[in-house]
Amino acid sequence: MKKAFMGVRLKRLREERGLTQIALARALELSPSYLNQLEKNQRPLTVPVLLKLNAVFGVNVQLFSEDDEARLITDLRELFETQSGHERVSLAEIRELAANMPAVARSLLKLARSQRANQEREEALVTRLGLDRSELQANRLMSFEEVRDFFYARHNHIAELDALAESLSQAWLIRPREAAETLAMRLEQTHGIRVVRNTARDAGAEVQRHFDPGQKILTLSPHLTNGQAAFQMATQLAFLEAGAQIDAITAQAALSSDEARRLARIGLANYFASALILPYGHFLDQAEQLRYDIELLGQAFGVEFETTCHRLSTLQRPEARGVPFFFIRVDRAGNISKRQSATAFHFSRIGGTCPLWNVYEAFAQPGRILTQLAVMPDERAYLWIARTVSRGHGGFGAPGKTFSVGLGCDLQHAERLVYSKGLDLKDKSGFTPIGAGCKVCPRAHCPQRAFPAVGSTLIVDENQSRFTPYPAS
After folding, report:
1. What's the pLDDT at 388?
2. Has this prediction a pTM greater than 0.85?
3. Start and end of every HTH cro/C1-type domain (predicted)?
């Protein structure tokens, strides 16, 4: 038997049996330090240790079989080589996956087989019904999801646009709270574009910006604040002053449809606009001085609460990082309309979010900033800030818009925020246990669980029902 480094498999075996390193070392008659080295792949798994595992725990030696590993490598190579358009996976990485995480490898292969089977069924259905195959292909991943994944992969920081916007902000002498006047002047003097406010009585609140390239008129909604108007003008300037950079970044994203590319260009233009009126260096300095007080930051720069939160989630310049935030905007029904992240925090792509999360409690206390110390199932803890934002410009009886905006950071950064004042950051027993969504959350006994987790076994007990198929009286 050649040297086999299989620490992850050994650790998994120990965790499945609920043993500590010391307990397993004692059972195998090994020193704890030697077992620790085995689990960290600093020492190879030897035949005597393998035989001892078999004798003590009845472990099938096939679990550590090189033949099984070779089969996995072959199947994984075939899988990754057929995935066109994805990042190349090297043979060294495939071997590492098969050797140390065979369960993950087998799960990937199972998912791939399931995906192929579903695609074959779709193709058969398309042929039977005479549908357009191009539409079916385009709908497998929605355009906005592609764009969202693109920003997530960049940690919500587009360095080239941020640097360009900051340099232009300095060159144009844009001052906080006075950006609207400067940008309107830039549009008119450099591009011959006149900025007007729509004064029509039936001007819809939905149309915040409309540009007529023929007449060179940029029409803004009359309901916009100065900060919102500045943002809309900056967005228009993004297409005029940073169009080449935006096109280059969009091309590099390798998006699958014209719709996704259009959405990406709009998202990048909005990013540029935010970086132009809230330039990186000055904004980060103010954020640190004010301990990330969102309302004071908004007042200092003349922008709204949501705009400030969004900009805070982008401050990840390598040589000058701010607190890495997760930013989200939801409505009362739980629909997520905005989600950007510079953190490892994530929510499920299937099903809703967690009802115990304070972004939903914010609707019961409109306009008030709520704080929450929350812990995820993986034991990572976060500080969350949430507040409602409202828009409504119609007359009596006209419906308005109310969203809850959430901003969160890892607990290790919490002390840098003013919102940690008075909170016990060390006693996790008082933290709210939240999850990524019921369908993927392992908290089986959560009082707010709506349905079982995907893949879990639902135990039905007539005397102790948790999930009723019909509304209880």
Report:
1. 96
2. no
3. 10-64
